[in-house]
Design goal:
180 residues; mainly alpha; 8 helices; 0% strand; Bacitracin transport permease protein BCRC; PAP2/HPO; PAP2/HPO_sf; transmembrane helix; UPP_Pase
């Protein structure tokens, strides 16, 4: 099923070639938009934004570590390295594609933004889904790589959302820049 779903999405790039530049742009460059948003939130003066960023970055660190551990137990090369007739739109070296780091990063931060803000942050979730989808479209990940990355990112975002505010030096007043 993983390969069949990959073929459906990746083959769409052959049929709808006009979308390929947008998919490559999203797959490669949306990460810079996310980084800029994290910096804006980090340095904004709105209460809770620093706590949100700290929570998201802690979750990201844990999710990436979990992803690296998962990769030690399950390894597969990118679709373009193992399957014939893949519509490969992004040049990259062959390595383990499981789980998708881009998807871990996006889902961790997008879910963190949603948990803390819940206002207009569904757009970050949509962008995270688009990043994952575009990585399949571009031929560099299987759907399972994306699904596991999304699950890891989301789970650690929630765990961090619950745990980080309970840490004494991470209280909202300290991270909001207020004097105690």
């Amino acid at each position: 099923m993983n390969i069949e779903l990959f073929r459906i999405i990746n083959d769409a790039g052959k049929e709808f070639e006009v979308l390929n530049p947008a998919m490559v742009f999203i797959a490669n460059n949306a990460i810079y938009l996310l980084a800029a948003a994290v910096l804006v939130y980090l340095f904004s003066r709105k209460p809770g934004n620093r706590l949100m960023v700290v929570s998201g970055l802690a979750a990201l660190l844990l999710a990436e570590m979990a992803g690296k551990i998962a990769a030690m137990f399950y390894s597969n090369y990118q679709p373009f390295a193992t399957l014939a007739d893949v519509n490969q739109l992004i040049d990259m070296e062959v390595n383990n594609s499981f789980p998708s780091d881009h998807t871990i990063i996006f889902f961790t931060m997008a879910v963190t933004f949603w948990l803390f803000k819940r206002k207009h942050t569904y757009l970050w979730i949509l962008l995270a889904v688009m990043v994952g989808f575009s990585r399949i479209w571009a031929g560099v990940h299987y759907p399972a790589d994306i699904a596991v990355g999304a699950m890891l990112g989301s789970a650690f975002a929630y765990l961090s959302y619950v745990m980080i505010p309970k840490v004494k030096f991470m209280n909202k007043n300290n991270l909001a820049g207020k004097e105690m």
